[in-house]
Write a structure and sequence with these properties.
Length: about 60
């Protein structure tokens, strides 16, 4: 299992996408505001995703 790094874009939970802001031991903190339809989803700006529950879409870490 490849662990995301800060700046990676990940996908999780049936299509939600976000940019990794912080990497923890078992999870990452993700900023969801990069999604075009973010305001339509009525979600918090950030969320925590377990390493087992996402796939990395963009490896261009900051």
């Amino acid at each position: 299992m490849k662990i995301a790094e800060v700046g990676n874009i990940i996908e999780f939970k049936d299509g939600l996408q976000g940019i990794v802001e912080k990497v923890n031991e078992n999870s990452v903190i993700v900023d969801l505001t990069i999604m075009e339809n973010f305001h339509d989803l009525e979600m918090e700006e950030k969320t925590v995703v377990n390493h087992k529950r996402y796939k990395i879409l963009n490896n261009d870490a900051l």
